[in-house]
Amino acid sequence: MRKFILGMVAVLLVFNAFAGPENNSLRVGTTQEPDNLNPWEGSADTKENAMNLFFLGLTYFDNTGTLLPGLAESVPTVSNGGIVNDDAAGTQTVTWTLREGLTWSDGAALTTDDVAFTLEVQQNDLVPSNTKAFTNSMTSFEVVDARTFVITYDNISLTSTQPGGNIGLARFNDVAPKHVWESIFNDAVENAAGDAEAFLAGFIGAAPATAAQGPTVSSGTFSLEEWQPGQFMRGTPNANFAIATAKLDFVQLEFFADQNTLIANILNGTLDASDDIGLAGQDPAVLGAQFDGAVNVSPSGFIEHFNVNQFEACQDAQDLLLGDKRTRQALIQAINREALHPVVFPPSLISTSFVVNGDIGYLAGIENEWPYNPEAASALLAELGWTDSDSNGVLDRLDENGRFINFNLRHIATPANFRLQTQEILQQDFAQVGINLIADNGPASVVFAAAHLNHAEECSWPHIFEFAEAAGLGISPFDPLAQQLDPNQVSSSANNFSGANYSGVVTPGYAELIADAQAAAFDTGARAAIVEEMQTIFLDELPLIPLYERGEIITVATGLQNYEKGTPLAKTIFWNPWEWCWDGVSC
Amino acid sequence: MAVTAKTPIKVRRRNKSTSAWGMAWQRFRRHKVALVGGTMITLFLLAAIFSPFITPYDFSSLQLTQRFQAPGLENISGAKCVRDSVLFWECGVHPFGTDDLGRDLLTRVFHGGRVSLLVGFLSATLAILIGTVVGATAAYSGGVIDSVISRIIDIMLSLPVFPLLLILSALLIGRDLPFGQWLEAVFGSGKTVVVIITVIVIFNWMATARLVRGEILSLKQREFADAARALGGSHFRIIARHLLPNAMAVVIVQLTLMMGEAILIESGLSFLGLGITPPEVSWGNMLSKAQGFFFFPNGIYTAVFPGLFIFLSVLCFNLLGDGLRDALDPRSIRK
Amino acid sequence: MFSFLVRRILQIIPTLFVISIVLFALLALKPGNPIDEMRLGNPGFTQADYERLTALYGYDQPWYFRFWKWLGRAMQGDLGPSTQYGMPATQYVFQFRLPNTALLSGLSLFFAFIIAVPLGIFSALRQHSFVDYAITIFNFIGVSIPIFWLGILLIFIFSVVIRKFLPAGGMLTPGVDWPDWALLGAQSSGWLETLSLYLDDVWTYLVDRGSHLVLPVFALTFLQLATWTRFMRSSMLEVINMDYIRTARAKGLIEQKVVIRHALRNAILPIITLVALSVPILFSGAVLTETVFNWPGMGRAILQSIVESDFNVAMASLLFISLLILIFNLLADVAYALIDPRIRYD
Fold first, then answer.
1. Where are the domains of chain C?
2. Residue B306: closest C-alpha in chain C
3. By residue range, what is the domain housing residue B257?
4. Gap between the Cα atoms of B302 and B97, Å rounded
5. Yes or no, beta carbons of C149 and B161 under 8 Å apart
């Protein structure tokens, strides 16, 4: 009886039982729960974090952006002969050797059999993978022995040794356990008989990847011990981990659908750390004032920007003369970006480039270009023929056909809080120079749908479209954001609206520069010079209007060591779970 | 001794009217709480309509240096200038504080009120109107028409309303419905308002229809309907002139209560992100945004005030409706 | 009566069929499908992938084809997999979400009922007294307050102001589980010690679950309570003023007997039907409460599946709710007939 009462009192008083250093464990909070732990299914990239706890890829990036070997013995490079580029034929051959003595957490050997099986599944049409581009560019896959295999691609790529599905084997962490998945996969294929939904049920819904079915066999630092859907995932150290034994006794990834609950639990000490996605939208200074531990900001590698519709076929865009670089120069000078970004997205840096600060070829000092200058903006607009003839505060002009056009700028974005705030601030900024900003928001599923995003030629989004795109992946100018500037990838009716250049922008000189960069792909120095030149042109042409680089907020309890993320290349805060430890306890 | 006919007796007329409406009004006047409710609602409506004149803070003027001010009667330099003049905006006082972009919360709440009250008023009126017409038609026609309409009402009542509200809102989000442009021009916000009014009306006319149908069915049985028919009135006349006015009591009460309902539904949907979407402001979506500001200093006030006003308006409508019910329905219990 | 019952039960099937067509059509006409969800935030997703996957899963087909396929499968009992989670939609809804909502709604219904009935009776018997006015004010507040505002304020108080007393949302603390007897047995000596450890852990578990339930149940109960108390009060008032009560009193029966034996039996009838009709509404309408309190329940699952276009989960949960509504409507009608002998169905 006494124990009851003591127990109850204990629970009520010390609500954060089971916390950190006392039992050498780590409780990490996040707002996004992975749908499943299936390595081929790629519906949500936020799954990357959880997958990295339990699986290890062939390679991984460390905090300084250096590519290190994971399951592989060494990283294949041009200098060590692992990568052989045939410039004439345009093919690339990569030779991989796995480490010696690799095993899965259950003791089964990890060999090229697993790799071959992983590829077989990835290539099956019924598998809902969304990185088939890399797989489809494979022309051959050869198993040399139990530890060595050779892949040949039909293009020369900079990323063919990088994690994140770039190798083309599986979307997450490259190698899946054949002895676990083989029968499930074969059964699913057989039973589905070509029916995609039936296959989905049998393959995605099967153990060992869903919450319903329980633990998985892993190759990573931890093995999944328990997964309560909607609540948490717990992992215990994998004794057969290739790199080093985990220093923690267990790790618990806890899910909070509501950010306030997450923050409350961080502030009251229940959670030891947060991941890199849960605290989006908060202010690190405000949190830091209320938190005992550290609140760190790490670069996310995403640049928030405006795409500007420059298709000649889109009359709405032409009405506002968006194809003329002076209009874009006026727009960027009308925005007070210095004041904007700390308010709407506190962990951010101002950006005036398509390359992330610190990445290859970043033009030093470019972020200071195009400062806020509403007078210059007005002057440019006047030069273009805009006046306020009807004195309603909005600029207008007559076009060649005598049509009366008001400067009503339609701004499309998803209704995320920070984008709404941006719109509201910009409405004021633009009103000062006589531009009427009209917010035209829609849910992500509508706004990012191909029918909307890729059809700017048909005015699906008439003027400006705001979102964040990845840059800073160490492969400039081949980052996704830079691809939006590639004149060869314009998304138009000519290529069935499949290009990455959504705005239809053809920047003078870029076609040649990008071709040069492709030719010099593996020469980092040469690429950097080309990227710098591209930025010089960028400053004048402004094919898109950059706003700021987004940062991520990561909280770390006092005493927790090695829990940090210094580069967007690492892609996840969970890039080094084997190094996490508590000061004085397990370090 | 006896009062002779010659003595003029001063008869003091107490000005009591004896019409049904007059008596109802007197009963209503005695119901103090309902009066309070009615007065407050009128005040809210007036404030909402005339808000641009009452709070000249520009609705969307941002003051990025004044984010998240606490509510109070002192301005940013600490001066209590309310003493000098009631025109608090002249010295930068924010009685309700400011929001995440430095805008005055009082102004925002009033502007949000315009949309929320507009939605409440229009959707309730439309729903009641449709319900009344349908219910009256069903009751009066009888026979096949009545069965069909009753079946439709039954099926619609067995649909899960809230999830359907969600689906329908998600479906119609961003679409241009008729009247959207006109509303936009007149009130400053149109598209999403029309969507949400449509959604609320589609799922809320049934209760009224049932009620009206019941009332008219029972009234049909009564003598005066027979008398009207005997006098040769047309069907429409009978409904409009005789049956409906008697069923009016129920309808008016329903209307008042429905307005409160509609405000709650609208703010609930906006809170979930499916009703009025930003940048249009309504009390519901102010609450939704406020959830991200718990940990900012004074951030909670962006949630306290809109919710408080939702609560007060719905409360007033309910009080008013209760009072009306007691006043208009002679059968209701009132010692 | 019997034929009425049979007729109503048989009507459920075609009604459900009509409802499923309506629901499916609405869901399918809503813009967005799971393939669109896949391309978000994934730079590697190409247009070719998009077209391949859309064709593979048949999202480019008109909704009536898809409905036909879905119906065919549903008749065999298979409601399809969840596109978000992979597991069967029925498993996701009924194993992982329904019990949570049932717990929340069930507790709220229970508490609301046992508080509303006596409060309503008391209020009616003491009409116009101070207590009556207090209860009436409380009722008006409960009926008018938006639950998500109440929830936000409660969460704010317990997550920002008072940080350690009650948890601010969620259903349980990770790691606090129902104890495993065998596991405990292995750790201790003798069954007495195991028993005491076991009971300790059970207590911790109950306290943990309970503390997470306090706020959401309070909010839900408060709202239900207000409506039901008012209803009970007016129902009771109506009955009390009837002639037969006056007769009972004139006969000299003590007040208590009058109340319980005569008045209550008749006054409670409408409340029972109200409760029966509230059950399905609580299940589907708890979306707001579940969102604010971060409760992993069915209401939120419905909202999520609608927003993320997970058709199978949406259909499974919505059909379940519709079935509940139909069944509870029937139950309410039957209860009405049973309690009030004046009502006859044929």
1. 98-339
2. C149
3. 21-332
4. 8
5. no
